[in-house]
């Protein structure tokens, strides 16, 4: 990151859908860890082929509680959670062997918010009515499993509010794995409505955190958020907005115009972003454009 921007991947679910996968299950892309892991490897490979340097694991909605709905016990759920990192690593190794380009490729273990498990869009609202202790009981075991699986970094992403951010900040302490934190954002605030400045400030003294920023937000949110994150935390920033379309939780579909433009990425880097990619509805084609825009 100190040498220059690192290109992240895009929306895993969008690529899986493009491959013909049915993601209507409440587990979303995590369903394929159980039913068709080869599709997950293929999706990661598609992003590496487009120029991504990081594969983000299919663990965003994976949890013991989520898998319990499919009759999967805790031990098997933990195995599936760890397998998300192993599949991403497999894709990275295959891509490196096939290309022979000597390029480093990394694995980020995705840690989605509690709301992602509810599969009702709650990660875009936050404030679930749970206590800090309840959120800790949910997050700590899955973080420990993911950290033990050997990712290069934990991607704590789409965090919607200050309470969950503070819980996650405590849960990552002592895991001995670098962490990036990214918040869902709208109009300079978290999805839960609090100032982004307060959210970023929570992470300034967490030694495991190597980058702070935003994801799954409209592209126009990125530059100001990145500058604020760098100013308040002293860290480099992470930025991977969605396509700019809006998510309709009731219809479980996207609506509105797309606004993701890879030509904006150099501006994000100038503002302090060093981990740069895309989120929902940003496929390998857009990541290829992003990689080209940042290649200089």
Automatic annotation (TrEMBL):
Residue numbers binding Zn(2+): 216, 279-280
Domain of life of the native organism: Bacteria
Entry-linked Pfam families: S-methyl_trans (PF02574)
Molecular function in Gene Ontology: metal ion binding; S-adenosylmethionine-homocysteine S-methyltransferase activity
Gene3D superfamilies registered for this protein in UniProt: Homocysteine-binding-like domain
UniProt keyword list: Metal-binding, Methyltransferase, Transferase, Zinc
Cofactor: Zn(2+)
GO biological process, any: methylation
Listed InterPro entries: HCY_dom, HCY_dom_sf, Hcy_S-methyltransferase
NCBIfam families the record matches: PRK09485.1 (NF007020)
PANTHER family per record: HOMOCYSTEINE S-METHYLTRANSFERASE-LIKE ISOFORM 1, ZGC:172121
UniProt protein name: Homocysteine methyltransferase
Provenance organism: Kitasatospora griseola (Streptomyces griseolosporeus)
């Amino acid at each position: 990151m100190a040498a220059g921007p690192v290109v992240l991947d895009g929306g895993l679910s969008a690529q899986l859908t493009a491959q013909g996968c049915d993601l209507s299950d409440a587990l979303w892309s995590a369903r394929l860890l159980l039913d068709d892991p080869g599709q997950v490897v293929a999706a990661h490979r598609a992003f590496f082929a487009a120029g991504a340097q990081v594969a983000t694991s299919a663990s965003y909605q994976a949890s013991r509680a989520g898998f319990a709905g499919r009759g999967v016990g805790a031990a098997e759920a933990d195995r599936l959670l760890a397998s998300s990192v192993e599949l991403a690593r497999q894709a990275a190794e295959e891509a490196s062997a096939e290309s022979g380009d000597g390029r480093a490729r990394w694995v980020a273990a995705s840690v989605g918010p509690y709301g992602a498990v509810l599969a009702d869009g709650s990660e875009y609202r936050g404030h679930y009515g749970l206590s800090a202790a309840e959120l800790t009981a949910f997050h700590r075991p899955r973080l420990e499993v993911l950290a033990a699986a050997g990712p290069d970094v934990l991607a704590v992403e789409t965090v919607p509010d200050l309470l969950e951010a503070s819980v996650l900040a405590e849960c990552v302490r002592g895991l001995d794995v670098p962490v990036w934190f990214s918040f869902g954002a709208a109009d300079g605030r978290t999805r839960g409505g609090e100032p982004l400045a307060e959210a970023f400030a929570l992470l300034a003294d967490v030694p495991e955190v190597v980058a702070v920023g935003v994801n799954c937000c409209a592209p126009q949110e990125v530059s100001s958020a990145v500058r604020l994150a760098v100013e308040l935390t002293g860290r480099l920033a992470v930025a991977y907005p969605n396509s700019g379309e809006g998510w309709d939780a009731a219809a479980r579909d996207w609506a509105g115009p797309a606004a993701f433009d890879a030509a904006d990425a150099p501006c994000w880097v100038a503002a302090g972003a060093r981990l740069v990619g895309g989120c929902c509805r940003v496929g390998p084609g857009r990541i290829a454009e992003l990689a080209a825009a940042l290649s200089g």
